[in-house]
Amino acid sequence: MIKIYTLIDNNEIKKQINNFLNEENYCLSENSGNSSDIIVQISNFMPDIILIDPYSKDCEYVIRQLKSSSTIYNTQIVFLIENDNNIEFLNLADGLITLPLKENVVKNVLNSHFKIKQSLDRLSENNKELSRSLYQLNVLYNTSSQFTGTLDADKLYDIMLEAMDKTLSFDISSLIVVNPLLNPVIRLNTIHKPSENLINAFKIRSILNYKAYLEELSSTFVFDDNSIELVQKVKQERSNKMLGLEVFNYDTLSAPIKVGNDFFAVIELYRKTPFSTEDVTCFQSIAHQVALPLRSAKLYQEISVANKKLEKLEKLKSEFVSIVSHELRTPLTPINNSLEIVLSNQAGEITPDTRNFVSMAKRNIQRLSGIIEDLLDLSRIQTGKLDFKYKSVDITPSLELLYKTFCQVAKEKNISISLDINTQIMPI
User: Fold this and answer.
1) Tens of pLDDT along 319-370?
2) How far apart are CA 425 and CA 393, in angstroms?
3) pLDDT tens digits for range 315-325
4) Which of 309, 318, 334 lies closest to 384, judged by CA?
5) More confident of the two residues 421 and 383
6) pTM tops 0.70, yes or no
7) Nearest CA to 271 among 139, 413, 172?
8) Strand 262-271 and strand 172-177: pairing?
9) Where are the beta strands (DSSP E) in 162-223?
10) How many CA atoms lie within 13 A of 85 on its CB side?
11) DSSP one-letter string for 60-110
12) What does the angle CA 265 – CA 268 – CA 269 come to, to the nearest 5 degrees?
């Protein structure tokens, strides 16, 4: 059906038009009132074609107002003119019908302009969809960059919901976040404040839909009304409107957020206006995009926890080494002093063989003391408390110590061991 609005003051022409278009294919509406009323009438009627007698009162004003209106941008304006007319605003017309009127000419012109109107509407809709798709692609690109910039799971969820809000303009979203180490969290993002009944309904709905599945993820999971944590965010907090149970009649999109066996959350969107095919694709793309960064965030969290445990163990080890080293060094001091007394003959004369064995024991005590001191030094290095002092050292005493340490052992095994020191060895 072609909707036609007529702006004609000439009663004879008006009567002819009504007679020509008195069929089911045409829906007529004519002007009434002043010029401002006409604009309102046309905006409410939303005609396909406006048939105008350019000699009508306030005609030029009405036409210019209509041309600047975005609501009837594609509406065709057709003038009814005489052959010898000279109208200054003729260029504002989309089509012309000359007087006197002929029925077949009027219908053919109107039908042609109706097809033009339909083509323009389709083109406008396609451009609108193209523009929206480009906007969604731009948001997806920017969102992807934001995802790679953080390893904070909560921040990733916020980025995801913000992207979905920009591209899909949902009325309410329900994000059920799952962490085997923590209680499940329902994050409600709403355009208006949700009622208590709606909040309770979302809790019950989540338990009924996901309880069995989520409890499979962890034996420590308790998914019930008492264990669920609720986090709310309202976009229009100052609004007096409130969302109730009617949202369950809205159009819905839902998807799990997971990578392989790693399950992170379930996202659901509700919108009063239906979601398009492009909306579904955009929604799934964002939900898929956030999954990999969430897995990276999970691995980062696990590594951080493991590192903290290792740091704790390392600290315990260092403390243990320090304590044991000090405890070992304590009894070595009186043992070393006792051997000194024996070697100095203060406890009586000793035989040469006894002196050799006591000297060997004293050397090994000194060696053990050196090992303990090395352990203490290692502990100091790990805590950053060791100061290094470099100086030239003659290695001859160290070589003599090694020789005396292994000389007796070599003799018992019938191994010949000797020490030949070159006096030209430079200090190191």
Assistant:
1) 787 787 778 778 888 888 888 888 888 888 888 888 888 888 888 888 888 8
2) 11
3) 888 778 778 77
4) 318
5) 421
6) no
7) 172
8) antiparallel
9) 172-177, 185-190, 193-194
10) 17
11) HHHHHHHHT-STTTT-EEEEEE-TT---TTGGG-SEEEESSP-HHHHHHHH
12) 145
